[in-house]
Amino acid sequence: MAPDGQMHAPNVYDAEPIPEAARAEIDRLLLSGDLFRYTAPDASPVALLEAEFAEYLGSRYALAVSSCSAALFLSLKALDLPRGSRVLIPAFTFAAVPSAVVHADCEPVLVEVGDTYRIDMDDFAAKLPGAGAVMISHMRGHTSDMDAIMALCDAVGIPVIEDAAHSLGTTWNGCNIGTIGQVGCFSFQSYKMVNAGEGGILVTDDPEVAARAVIMSGAYEQNWKKHPGLQNSFGHWQNRLPLYNLRLQNLSAAVIRPQILEIDRRVRQGRMNHDHVADLLNGSGYFVVPEPLGPELRAPDSIQFNLSGPWSDAQALGFQAAAKARGVAVQVFGLSEGNARAFWNWQFLGPQPDLPRTRAMLMRACDVRLPTRLTPKELDFIAEALIAAAAEARPA
């Protein structure tokens, strides 16, 4: 609260504080200089993180790496796909996803996304024949229809990778997102549910995928022996695969590990925050917040909504500016210059067919951060600022 009694716009950029429990381990590591995950004979912080994260999700194997992008790339390489394989991805995702496909020497195939931010299943089914793999981004935590996707892919033996960067803590029919496909990939970047600044992790129940990913991540010489449970597979693949050196280091693991105990609380708080703001926005007449699918229990730390009714580009940009003037940062995905989530900015892919449904959605879809630490008053401030900005930009 300001000295004049007026409430100032809340800070939505800072993440939650790192738990105090991380400090002692960080001090120990700094004193020892033991930052490389393979220096210790066993039980390094990275190895402990992998065991704890796999247990939390109910997966057999976990591999911590330098980023979620690295996890996506390694997942594709670990599937041992032929060069040039077609990989279906949503047309609404972050640029790192098609980039991972390109790095893996595969061809991204963009699938239409509707105004609920989820895969268009008709377009998906039409483009699936002949695909080598599917990479589903649960973009901003919105889960596509995993029952329908898995049924189509399982019927023809096409592996599914889940990009769950925004979905740690989300469940589908009671199953953790990231454990439904053959591989699940998560992010520890600062704006995610668990924050290490950078970092990622992949999980799988497939021992061959796990073994190939471990070796290619940079478990050179005999370092693969420090990963439990895969010794026969490691022995087969050693020296037969390239090394990409995408390892996580121990300081990052020390920051991440105590946050695993915080995930469930953060998920509950984030869902309450999201639903509180969603109710206010949906009641305004200016916005529509898509409902979750029936089997989906989300874990949001942001909110996405569509501008309701006819809006011109100028009005949408006016709304964005009016919200900013009130202290609330909102981006309209398709109207934010150079936005890495707008498929037409992925020029590294070369010419692509237009995707009219996705394009139309992106031109009116909005995004606002809602960190789990926000108070009810701060949430009300954000919602009221958005509604007032909409009224200013497009009077009734």
Task: Give an overview of the whole structure.
With 396 residues, the protein is of the alpha/beta class. The chain contains 13 helices and 14 strands. The strands form three sheets. A seven-stranded mixed beta sheet has the order 1-9-8-5-4-2-3, sandwiched between helices. A four-stranded antiparallel beta sheet has the order 10-12-14-13. The protein has a three-stranded antiparallel beta sheet with strand order 7-6-11, with no helix packed on it. Helix 6 links the parallel strand 4 and strand 5. The model has no long low-confidence stretch (mean pLDDT 95).
Mean pLDDT: 95
User: What share of residues is helical?
Assistant: 25-40%
Q: What's the number of extended β-strand segments? A: 14
Which regions have little confidence, pLDDT < 50, spanning 5+ residues? none
Number of helices: 13
Spatial shape: globular
Radius of gyration: 22 Å
